[in-house]
Amino acid sequence: MSLRIAWAMGWAAAAALAGTASAQFWTAGGILTEGISNNGITSGSTNGAGHYFMWAAGGSVIDIGGVSPGSGVGGQGKISRDGRYISGTTFNAAAGYHEMSRYDTMTGMWTGFGMLPGIGQQIDAEVSSGWGISGDGRSVVGLGWTSIGTADAHAAQWIEGTGMVDLGSNAVGQSSRANGANYDGSVVAGWQDGNGRQGAVWVNGVQELITLPNGTAAQEAQAVSDDGVYVTGIGIGGFTSPGKAYRYNTVTNVAEELPNLAVGGERFMAGFGINGDGSIIVGGTWGFGPATFGRGFIWQEGVGTMRIADYLDSLGIAYDAGYEFAFGSGISSDGQWMTGWGRDSNGQLGSWIVHIPSPASMSLIGLAGLVGIRRRR
Q1: Taking the domains of the chain in order of start, what are their residue ranges?
Q2: What is the DSSP letter of 18?
């Protein structure tokens, strides 16, 4: 079966599920999802083959190639809101390097975007890498290696019809990277070296550094709401105190810290996925070691932070007995789909998807007006 046919079948199944009235829950072993679309298609970059994949709830995992971080190359497999495009990194055999790329699920083809114009260079086997994608799929973000300093990387953005754009760094010798973008790509989030990996956003190409209410630098930013107003990212606490993720308002330039879990909150807390209007954030909290051993959380505006398991319990959604939710890696912009990482009753690490028929947030019907808040110059 071709990838295009397999994807079409998976998309149709997910679309049908999206119209059902009952909530559903699925798991898949051996993969780690990094994003989810409004029709329940997930993508990720950590599977046994070291490639990217996509997965429709209830269907099979489809290997789509590319070169994931498991192969020593940077990048993340995130997905556009309609499930059409996936970000990542591929190897350009003719040029002899890895590059930021976009996968088209309709054609089954990757397109590479090369290096930053004028300043790009190859470091080891890489000239650029893709770490995120805009909601409309017309923009891929990540980093590009430059010749400005010694092995410096700059946050980079490929824009359909424009090409590769250097988002820059605030100092020579300091690197930056982009991790995510809003629906139309006008607001990009990531980090800037110099004060640790300080959280940063680029609003219409202009960088803003994120500072917490106590005046200290926020840690790296991960995701942007579709309307471009809110950004979420990582918080690190002390050795004996839990960390707090944050939600940064790009209009007021004010960050609010999100409380960790009242029970089970640990030193690291990452907001990794955010819905369309920024009212819901998912992620995880963990101690030393990888986040795959943590506790997944969901934060809701006006409600607070709770374990994903408790959230599903509150909605009466059944899931596999003994399942441990380690991390929430993505939420659809309409709030009807969530995905993340977990362990089954045998301790096997994999991913989960849950479909919540009643929207937990805004509908895309009003999205056209919201994305008008931010426009590229």
Answers
A1: 3-371
A2: H
Percent helix, strand, coil in the chain (nearest 5)? 10, 45, 45
Pinpoint the alpha helices (H) of the chain.
Answer: 3-18, 308-314, 367-371
Q: What would you report as the CA-atom Rg of the chain, rounded to the nearest whole angstrom?
A: 19
Query: Phi and psi (nearest 5°) for 241?
Result: -125, 145
Q: Output the six-digit token pair for 50.
A: 């070291």
Distance of CA 89 to the CA centre of its chain: 15
Note whether 170 and 209 are within 8 A (CB). yes
Domain spanning 3-371 has what CATH number? Answer: 2.120.10.30
Low-confidence ranges of the chain (pLDDT < 70): 1-21, 47-49, 70-71, 359-377
Question: In the sheet that 32-36 helps form, which strands lie side by side, from edge to edge?
Answer: 32-36, 41-46, 52-56, 61-65
169 close to 176: Cβ distance less than 8 angstroms: yes
Instruction: Tell me the residue length of the chain.
Output: 377
Model pLDDT, residue 47: 58
Cβ-based neighbours of 226, under 8 Å, separated by 6 or more: 81, 135, 182, 183, 275, 276, 277, 333, 367, 370, 371
pTM for the model: 0.91
* Nearest CA-CA partner of 329 in 362, 294, 376: 294
The tokens for 49 are: 């083959």
Residue linked to tokens 């982009």: 178
The DSSP call for residue 239 is S
DSSP string, 204-229: TTEEEE-B-TTSSBPB-EEEE-TTSS
